[in-house]
Amino acid sequence: MALPPSVFVDVAAQIKRNVYDETCTNRVVIEKPFGHDLESSRKLSRDIGALFDEAEVFRIDHYLGKEMVKNILSLRFANVFYEAVWNRHYISNIQITFKEPFGTEGRGGYFDEFGIIRDVMQNHLLQVLCIVAMNQPQSLSAEDVRDRKTEVLSRILPIQLEDTMLGQYVGTRDGSKPGYKDDDTVPKDSTTPTFAQCVLHVDNDRWRGVPWVIKAGKALNEAKMLIRIQFKDMPSALFPNLARNELIIQVSPKEAVYIKTIVKEPGLSTNLAMSELDLTYKTRYQDVKIPDAYATLILDVLNGDHSNFVRSDELDEAWRIFTPLLHQIEKEHVKPMPYEYGSKGPDGVYQFVENRAGYKRTGLEYHWVAPQ
Ligand SMILES: NC(=O)C1=CN([C@@H]2O[C@H](COP(=O)(O)OP(=O)(O)OC[C@H]3O[C@@H](n4cnc5c(N)ncnc54)[C@H](OP(=O)(O)O)[C@@H]3O)[C@@H](O)[C@H]2O)C=CC1
Ligand SMILES: O=C1O[C@H](COP(=O)(O)O)[C@@H](O)[C@H](O)[C@H]1O
């Protein structure tokens, strides 16, 4: 349940009065929403800052506690071959995708005030983007890591409405699943987006010219959270018109990292086929229990480790990127495009990625054969 900022600060003040102990270390864990735009977030930060030091505050973004998100720094900075191609010279475009197969299911009252951009994009997806995009920190200390993330955010211009696609789900044709506005807690004239897709750019030497697409939607065809890095065309005289390589970091539901790789079709054929180099965690690490994201983050709090928590300047930058768009959507009552519950999103969802980000799906077909 989201607390309005005034109640939130009131609760924080009560904590300070009743629980705070000057003689020991105090740690306050705060869960989103951290305001609803740049101004309200700044006010909240000031009010919280009047009660607690930044070192005492842990702003949770549970995506930072997910195994595959925590893994990105190791993948990138512990392997010579990833870091070598992790730039605009080799990468064509990057998609960060969040899909849920269910709607608001009675939580519409909360959701309608926020919408998918505030609920998932401005925090979870943008945090993931920062880690994929950041330059190597000087050390793994919390402040070095957060400095690098903030640096990335500072190089992203506010997102424009024309670079955005908005959707809202409607009920299935056979009536088996309700539409967003069929939820009793949602106003019948709501224009709150339950789906959004935006293109943005990180304007620095590593990424200039590489489009990033962040996409999030509720009531879609599947549950999935992944980062899809598509590489540039291979300029091969030997094998013309090749499909592109992709590196996919699948955060959920099943942790995996795979690289779509072209091979010779096995057997007598000399044709090419799209295959994969596949690291599926469930098969590779059979006896390892991956802890829940919140559990790892609470442990970090107990250890006083801020690395996977959002600093106030990061939060400020994140709101700077989204606030003009959110205000415009609300002021102009921009109408989201309808999409059917359980579908892949509004019409044109893939054309948008192809036209606006240069995502290409030509050449070889890809079919994954799951290991037995
Ligand atoms: N280790 C593992 O667990 C592995 C699992 N797999 C699984 O195999 C399946 C296929 O793999 P995947 O990497 O998705 O490969 P695909 O080539 O099948 O890509 C399909 C995805 O591309 C997007 N897409 C489809 N058409 C277009 C288009 N015209 N323009 C832009 N985007 C388009 C869709 O994304 P969107 O989802 O955004 O709608 C779709 O899910 C997945 O379910 C994956 O999880 C594959 C390899 C390893
Ligand atoms: O913060 C939120 O995240 C969940 C999705 O989290 P996940 O760990 O299940 O991927 C989302 O359903 C919810 O709307 C949002 O507030």
Automatic annotation (TrEMBL):
It comes from the Eukaryota. This is Glucose-6-phosphate 1-dehydrogenase.
